Amino acid sequence: MTSGIHHITAIARKVQANVDFYLGFLGLHLVKRTGGFEDANQLHLFYGDASGSPGSLVSFLVWEEGSPGRVGHGQPSEIAFAVPPESMGFWLTRALQFNVEASGPAQEFGEPVLRLKDPDGVIVKLVGTNALAEPAPWASSDIPETHSIRRLRGATVLTEKPKDTAHFLQSHFGYRETAATETIRRLTSSSGDVIDVRDAAGFWSAAPGTGTIDHVAFRATDEATVLAVRADLEQEHAGATNAHDRKYFFSLYVREPGGSLCELATDGPGFAVDEPADVLGSRLFLPPHVAEDTAALVRLPQFALPGEPRMPQRDLPFVHRFYHPAKPNDRTFVLLHGSGGNEIDMLPFGHQLDPHATLLGVRGRSTEEGFPRWFRRLSMTTFDQEDMRSEAEAFAAFIEGARNGYGLDPAKTVFIGYSNGANMLAAVMLLHPGVIRNAVLMRAMAALENAPETDLAGTKILMLTGKDDPYGKYAPELKATLGNTGAAFEAIDIDTGHGIGVEDIAAIRPWLAQNGL
């Protein structure tokens, strides 16, 4: 069978920083961008050589603003790339120029190794070696081919069962042990790449999250080979296996005895199956099962290639996500989710409301049983007033920061909140008049107690209450409060419950038009 690494997959927290490192600094080639096959809210990027050859590929699942993981046993811990041995000086100088943390060069198994860390803390090794073939070398604009990354040299796997892990990789993925130290067994494939099995007994266990390596995928000639390996694994009772058609390759997943996830992926059909080989990575593709879901595109984080114009990134007190349509108009919707949502939940609604509007989704900072909220809830209908006022003040500061940092036009910015997010908008307007000029409140209630008498002259507010919303009985108090502020206030009861949908869009669109928004 074909042996060797097909690709290595890790998890990134910030897509733009990831692209800037792997394309801008390392000079790899972006060969494919897709939505996640398991989670349509994830972006999946593949970097590799000129043709996206198996053995050159490193991929990233982007968990934008996701929680950091923990590197430990039961997980790969390092990615290694092969570079010409004489290029160590070039890469050390480049690391200093780009302010990339680096250590070395040092000798490992007779090869010079420069250790780097990517923006999420994943250890990336540049290994000086001529031990691997170079089917399709790729040179970027500022990295000559003589110094460019050739392909993957290998990976390091942490395990409490080094003997069992090594035996498993040798038995099923075509590796053989070629060297060893006191703590590392080096396994080598027929392709020349290596897996270093490191004894991590006594170390803590791994935890999934950003900044970790999810799995190593090994090469198989075809689907029949994958299924044959699956049969062998099942006969040995090696644990649960899952096989999937990933469009660009057919895959099998299994965990080795030490707990690390392994994949066996076919060499074909490859990344040129849905776009020409000379423009690989130029388009975003969705997995077949969500290809018709336009909302899936809106949920995926956007990025700019090195050298392309890009939106500035601001460090503001609330996690947020921008979506920029291909042909934007002058509208911006600032979208606030309901209880348990996050910064991307309302993006599809905003896109459906106006496909040409720029969208800014924001995540609440309070949590309840691990789920985001805008402020602490004491019961289903009572709220922590001190927390609400504190978070309203912080959100008002966020709005000012976003306007200054991103150049938002207050007159053409519409804040749209749902449920808990709508309650937050009402609190901000009542406590900090003038910060929000245009607001749509969907399924809001009177959450703020002892609301001050506020002058909201010049503010435009639309409040939408569901006739069948069980919380609708708490809306009249808020309607009365907002109606006495001097705002251009309109309240509409619509034929729906607590959820949101087309009935809301049918009410919001004419309100936007009537108010010149």
Automatic annotation (TrEMBL):
It comes from the Bacteria. SUPFAM superfamilies: alpha/beta-Hydrolases, Glyoxalase/Bleomycin resistance protein/Dihydroxybiphenyl dioxygenase. Residues 4-129, 151-267 form the VOC domain. Gene3D superfamilies: 2,3-Dihydroxybiphenyl 1,2-Dioxygenase, domain 1 (3.10.180.10), alpha/beta hydrolase (3.40.50.1820). PANTHER family: RING-CLEAVING DIOXYGENASE MHQE-RELATED. This is Glyoxalase. It comes from Sinorhizobium saheli.
